[in-house]
Structures are given as C-alpha cells and as structure tokens.
Write the structure tokens for this entry.
Amino acid sequence: MSQTEINSWQGVQEEVRRRISQRIWKPGEFIPHEADLAREFGCARATVNRALRELAEAGLLDRRRRAGTRVAVNPVRRAQLDIPVIRDEIEAKGQAYGHTILRRDLRTPPAEVIARMRVPAGAELLHLETLHTADGAPYVFENRWINPDAVPAVLSEDFAAFSPNEWLVREVPFDGGDFTFSALTATRTEAEALACPEGTGLFVLDRTTWTAGHVITSVRMVFHPGYRIHTRL
C-alpha cells in the first residue's frame, strides 16, 4: 500500500481490515490508540477516527469510550444496502427505463404518515404516486410523501427529467434512514398499477430518510410480481 493510499481514511480502513483478517490483531485484542495509528500511517488522527468508526459500524471493531478499541470477538456480518435508484437498476438489466407521475397533490397525510414523518398534525406534505417501467412494463409502484420544509425546492420540481426517487438521491443529502421489507397481497390500486391480479403476492420496501432533524421523505415501493432483491455481506 502506498503512502498516498494510507493517508486516506479508506486506506487506513483497508489496512485495519487486513490486520484483522490475517489475525495480526486477534479477536478480543485491543488495537493501538488512534494517535499511535495516525503516527504510524502518517495521517491525521481524524482520518484514523473515521476509518475505525466505519469499521465499528460494520461490526468488526468494538469501541468503548475511555476503554479503547478492540477487535470484535464475534464480528457481525452486515448486509450492505444502498438507496436504490430504480433507473439504474432497470438499465443495468439492459431494459429501457420510464416513469409516470400518476398523482401529485399537497395535502395533510394520514396519521401513520404524520407519525413517521415527525410533522405536526395538520401539516401539508407533497404526495406523489409514481409508476416506474422497464421496457414499458410496470416495474415499481411508488407511493411517496416529501416534507417541503426539509426540501423547499421540491414544490417547483416537475420531475420531467428525473423521477422523485432519482431526484431526491441526486439533489438532497441525508444523514440517515431506515428500511423495512415486507410482502402484501395486491389491492385494486396495486393490481391496476402493476397489471397483475388482485391478491397477488408482492415485495414491498418502505423507506424513510432524514437530515438535520427533519424527515425528508417516506416512501413505499411495491415491486412487480416475482421481483427479487440481492445484497452482499
């Protein structure tokens, strides 16, 4: 590894991973202090801190305030999951992407959405229903709420060039979020949108993302029959 590589947090992370995987640092052992690693790698302590923080979040390190950092005794293998950009997913399969806004309005959402979006009762949110298509066939039916207080520019966006899914990923930074995976049997609404019989079993992804104390968006994506998701450890 070159000195340039080791001076980046990614380089530090790669070297720490190597030492863990090769048992240079064994499970349960304390690793050197951040200041010592910074001197060894010739980088800022903040660079080491970020690398170790990422590895702790990945389950490879156990960090305790004032106690130091040790290699996790039982490392947690965590799946990696990115916010999906539907266009990229469809085009990666060699299919032509399209999207249509089926419904757009500014209104007060139902109680469960108010709770999820953490907005006052009576607040008005932008509501969008979007159909994503692959080679013209229904792919994802998306039911989305966006908080204009968190994303003021959304009110003037027509989503002609980019779907709400893609526009938010491109334009709005976020601090965190959560995913829920489930299944449902298609109601008339999903059946009509996805061109399938009512009662068909469908894969569902519910996602909420937030930034700076505001929830940006909450979306339910209902995928076409037979859809499968793939991730990695």
Remarks:
- The longest strand covers residues 97-107.
- The beta strands are 61-64, 68-71, 97-107, 125-134, 137-146, 176-185, 201-211, 214-223.
